[in-house]
Amino acid sequence: MARADLTQGNIKKTIIRLTLPMILGIFGMVAFNFADTAFVAQLGGTQLAALSFTFPVVMIIQSISMGLGMGAGSVISRVAKKKDSVKRLATDSLILAFVVVVVVVVVGLLTIEPLFYGLGATDVEMPYIKQYMTVWYFGVPLVVIPMVGNNIIRALGDTKIPGLVMLVAAGMNIMLDPLFIFGIGFFPQMGVTGAALATVISRFTTLCVSLYVLGRRERLLTFAGFSFAKMRSSFARVLHVAIPSALTRAIVPFGAYIITGLLAVYGAGVVAGYGAGIRSEFVMLTVVGALASVMISYSGQNFGARNIERLRQGFKFAVSVNALYSIGAYAVLFFAAPYVAKLFSSEEIIMQTTVLYLRIAGAGLAFQGSIQIVTSSFNAVGKPIYATIIALLQMFGIYIPLSFALSSLLGQAGIFVALVISYILAAVIGHISFMRFLRKEEANIEVLEHENTKIGDIVK
């Protein structure tokens, strides 16, 4: 059933072949946020600050969709050659995604004001926040369902279609943003509402294509043999990975929620600069994100086939590529930071904060990427709790406590320094933990093979 057997062939070529299309796709998704921020910044500092306040909440919801996608991809990659199992899991995963969407939309629309006032937004930013989030919440189905669908497609070894679809959707978003935000031609001027609407319309493309590929090309969507008992079983298998994975993903934006509140005491300009810095950093993490996504299907298929040594070699190669790329990316980012900042705003405080963030936090790119690869690999082999523990340690065990301590000494720079330190420590711990897990799995396989040999000898 798998479109690509990732348990065979040259390891390096396999990972590179899977990663290249994903780089374009993830770059497209990053371009979504980058384009929105750059165009909204032209409306003014208040609007940019409002969009920055929405970032943690948007990322938390995207984390839920990524968690569901990770759960579906992990389970399906491990049974990729079993046609009936893949069909049942694929269909039930999309049903689960729909149920989650309904809950998220209802809760989100009812909690806009208390949530963002709690984040530190004022009456000045709130009207713009409400304009953006009201439209964005109604587009949540176009975020969650395609995310799950694309992860299913990737789990079967096809990274080209998801990557291409994400790139096309990003192109649409970049094209529609200025039309809706500024009211070019016969389009009405909608400001921040237009940015949200452009995103929603663009996401609709990913929904249509993912459903077409799963339903028509792969013929994975079926209600034949449907039963609530089977659906509950599928839900349990997917949620076993999805819940910890979503929590892992949500830890970053939830931590950003706290950090944004901490930075808010320095003023809306600092919050706006922080938001611009994060979005710029995401562009540089494109290759890293692609590697991490590929490791879900690669690790899942090889773990399912019990090819532990092949899994280990692939993991080491991904970490090495991440390190080499991140060093080069940081060098570029360090010197380009002032020019990047000018893309978002001409206000001095916003530009200063953006440059400060990129030059300090960028030093942790390699370690941040290593954490992503480790957590993706743990999720892929069905050990999501390990990934969650690493993410919790990085954010709440190190980053946030250290931010409070260093901010009192170094101001906002101390918060960014704390982020780098937390990445370094968590990356080292995560790498050691995953390699130890692989050694234990190899030992278990050797014991099982030895016992089977003894049983065979007795039978003879």
- Give Rg in angstroms: 22 Å
Uncertain stretches of 5 or more adjacent residues: none
Q: Helical amount among residues, as a percent range?
A: over 70%
Q: Which percent range describes the beta-strand content?
A: under 5%
Number of domains: 1
Alpha carbon gap, first and last residue: 37 Å
Mean pLDDT: 82
The tally of beta strands, per DSSP, is 0
Q: Would you give an account of this structure?
A:
There is one protein chain. With 460 residues, the chain is mostly helical. It has one domain (11-459). 85% of the residues lie in helices and 0% in strands. It has 16 helices and no strands. The protein has helices spanning 11-41, 45-77, 83-110, 112-119, 126-138, 141-155, 160-182, 192-217, 228-264, 268-284, 286-304, 308-344, 348-361, 365-380, 384-410, 412-459. Helix 7 packs antiparallel against helix 8, helix 10 packs across helix 13 and helix 14 packs antiparallel against helix 15. It is globular, with a radius of gyration of 22 Å. It starts with 10 loop residues before the first helix and ends with a helix.
